[in-house]
Every structure is written in structure tokens, then in C-alpha cells.
């Protein structure tokens, strides 16, 4: 057994864990990062499939993601704008592909007006919602006890308007059916992006990409940590108490004053905590789960849709692929489309064979872009639910009532152990920007605790231990 002693052990080499480790090291603390996978990056993964570069995981940068933008600047990474010139495509209940420009899809005047009204109502509620503490909203309990779908249906009897408003939160972001999470969870999602209008505006939320791929952020952070990042070492046990922590990962054990568990909440229980986590923490983890989405990559010898005057942006709550975009890489002559299939539609596709699933997905792309979409040169499906150390996408969210019941608790340390990933972010929730912000916060909390009161952890450990 190789024994290591550090000030802080970080579990997870994603953006949050590596950001925390980098900040701690810069402040003079010794750190080590233990990662279960054989690669750096967590839910960020840029890879070559059949010679074609694809962003298997997260990829976009929006103007409000200032923590990510700052980090890109510090790391010397360049960005480029997503192609968006031309008309978008919407498919309604009649199955007909309609071309349009602007944010509101072509529908009846009544439906267009209803969508604009619902957006205004949601923007007003979002403005009242603190993304760092949505459970403090004056109507938090009420909003957390009604599903997003049920609330929308209370607001409007225009089914097409309801279906499309639900799409922007349920299918496109939380990747769960709109009946399975609360209005408050939806408000948090929108508040974390600044407004619901931002989620509707693809030109805002999907603004830029990183030249060479977004995984370069964690890769470059890891370079700065050198040999203090250890791959292929899943942590199996974490003993914690007044004197600090001991993490065991295969043939490595680490003793440290503090631990940062930087993995999604659904993976907390892959670690054996000694003593066990307090009862409410164990309960909390059972009320958080990741969504389900298939990210589809289809590369063609040319971006044929551009010649047809299309931007590549397409969406429909009635199609298997609920949204798709031009995802061509910087400097390439080939064209790439990226599409998404989420929640119950993904359930249905995963019951098919791989060939049947591919055929159904390409047929859906062809409904937007025409028959040329049926024959990509390279095709790949990102299936994060099959990843042992992720098991879903994009991020964790609570079930009905869970956010008010456990939301504040998820941010509290358990003795010398702190938990944090993009799943627990306020601004930038479920995005790389949020992961970076959480990494900064966790590092600052440890530094403040170490500098102000070295015995604070002992008192917290005793209190939480007694609570269990």
C-alpha cells in the first residue's frame, strides 16, 4: 500500500475537483486528486471517432459564464462562434417542417402569443428566485410540490405552447419528463442561466465553442498538478473524523486534513464512509438523480444544410430528436450536426437494437434537414448513462419536494468532508461554469477554515456525527 499525506485529498478529476485542487495548490496547500476513470475530465470528453473529433460531453460557452470565460483566458484557450446563419426549422403537431427566423417558432398567432406570455410569467418568477437559495423563495414549498408540467397546464390550455415551454427545461436541460420534477427545480435551472429567456435563445446559451474541445480545461488544470493527479484509482472508502480523513483507492491511501468529494450525487454511495454519513445526507442522495439523454453526432462530407439556407438549428417536442444544431468544428470543411434525444424518448430508443436506434434517429434528423441527413460519413452516440462513473446526463436534480427538503443541506460540509460538482452550482448549474464556481467556493472554504480556526472542523464533525 502506497501511503500519501496531503493537506487536501480531492476525489474526482472533473472541472470542479481540478479547479479546487489548483486553487488550493496556488495558496500553498498540498493536494492529491484521485480519479476512478483512466482519463481526465469527468463529463468533459473530447475524442476522435473514426478520425473525426467529437465533443462527447459538454461543449458550449455562453456570455454569462464568466467563470468559465475567465478560466479559458487564464489557460490560453481560444473560442469560436457556433454557425447560426440562415433559417431554423420547427416541426409541429402536423409533422411538417417549417422554416423560420427568430426565437418564436411558426405557429398560430394564438399559440405564439401564449408562448410569449408564458415566457414573461416565467421570467418574472425567475427574477424572484435566488439560484444560490431557491428554497428561500416566499412560495418555495408550493412551487416545489407541483410538477413543472402540471403548473404549465394550470397556466394554459394551449397544448402546443405548453409542450414547447416544457421542452426548454425538461428535454433540453434537466433531461427528465416535465411531470417528474418541480416548478421550483425549473426556476432554479432558469435562474442559474440568468433568465428563462436565455434558455429559449439558442444564440445565447449555445454561443461559442473552444478550439480543440472543452476537455482542454480539465486537461490543462491537471497538467499544473503533475503527479498529484492519480488516474484509475476509484476511492472505495473514506474515513473521517476530528483529525481529518483517510481515503483508500486500490493500492493508494491518502491521509489529509480535508476531503473534497467532487463526483455527481448519484455516485456518493460508491464510497464507504466511516463513520456513515448522517442519516439526512443518506436520505438526500436517494432523492437526487441524473437525467437521461443521448447526444447524437453525425458528420457529413459537407455541411449541406447551409447551401439550403439553413442554420442547422432545429427543434420539436414531437420529434425523437428534440433539438439539433450545426456542430461543425473550427477550420473543418466537413459538416457536423449534433442532436439530442432525452428522457422517455431515450427510454424507448434504448429498447431497440443499435441499428434500429440509429435508423430512427437519422430519420428524425432527415425530417428537419432532408434526405441527405440519412447518410453521415461518421455517426456516434454519446451514452453517458452507460458510463460507470457517471450513469446519466447532464446533471442531478431533485424529485418533487426534494429541493426545499434537502437543497440547503447539500451545500454543508460533513466534518472535514465537502461535496461539490456542477450539480450543486447556483450560477452555471449543470454547466462547466458552475463546476468552476463550485471548485473556487470549496477551496476558499477550506482555506478560510484553515486560516481562521483550525478546530472548526472538529466541532462540525462532532455536531454532524451526533445528528446522525
UniProtKB/TrEMBL annotation:
Cofactor annotation: FAD
Pfam families: Amino_oxidase (PF01593)
Keywords of the record: Oxidoreductase
Gene Ontology MF annotations: oxidoreductase activity
Chain ranges of the Amine oxidase domain: 16-447
Keyword Transmembrane helix: no
Residues that hold FAD according to the record: 35-36, 235
Residues that, per the record, bind substrate: 340
Family the entry assigns: Belongs to the flavin monoamine oxidase family.
Name under which the protein is recorded: FAD-dependent oxidoreductase
Organism, as annotated: Herbiconiux oxytropis
